[in-house]
Every structure is written in structure tokens, then in C-alpha cells.
What does this fold into?
Amino acid sequence: MRTIVAFAFLAFFAIGANAQGKKGPSIKFDYLEYDFGTIKQGDKVQHEFRFSSDGTEPLVISQAQGSCGCTVPDYPKQPLKKGEKGVIKVTFDSAGKMGSQDKTVTIMSNSTGGAVVLHIKGTIEAAPLKNAPESRPMEKPHN
It folds into this structure.
């Protein structure tokens, strides 16, 4: 019986110690998704994803990769100490795109939580035609 009680106590202590905080670097985003709504084809949208370094060791972002060439991230290259905040700026170019879009940016870092995927989504409508010819009434044929 003592063995079971001792084991239960050790298990409880281990779970409690782990819940107090992660060891090592960690990244925490305010949110992982941004909806830009409806835009016209050819428009560019920029958004800043805010995050903090909330681990016990400095956070280093090694790479930020967009799902296509239309989604370009800009991220801090320097290490962030515990408690420091940062921004990943994402630019989405809607040229050649139509309809519903869900583009991703994968963030690779030394975080104990592994890679993080950010989403930028919305809908793209056709752009108005430029230099469209004016409509003219048809001429009556001459007899």
C-alpha cells in the first residue's frame, strides 16, 4: 500500500512540476489566423502576427516559409529573450488568384512546441476591367 501511495505522490509531483512551465525556448502567438475579408484581384494585403518568447531560454526563429510565392513572411532574425515580443509580417499578393483563399506560413524555430502554422485567408473578387471600350449604339445601315 505504501508503494502505491508513494508512486501516486511522485506522479502527482511530476505532473505538477511539468505544468509550472516549459523548460527551454517557447513561442506563443496572439492568434494563428487572420481573415482579410474580400479584396479585389491584384490587391496586396499585409498583416502582422504578434508573438512572445515565453520559454526559459532565448527563442530563435530559423525560417518562415510561405505556402506559395504569393505569401511572403518577414521575421526577426535575432534571438528573443524570455518575455520579449516580436512580429512576423506577412504580405499576400492576390494577383492571379480568385475565390476563397487560405494561405499558410510555417514558422520553424527552436521552440519546444515545434513548428507553428499561421493562416491568412479571405476571398478575392475579379478586378474591374481597365480601359474597357465604351459601348456605343449600333448604327443603322444606309440604304
In short: The first helix runs from residue 2 to 19. Helices lie at 2-19. The beta strands are 27-29, 33-40, 44-53, 61-66, 71-74, 85-93, 99-109, 116-125.
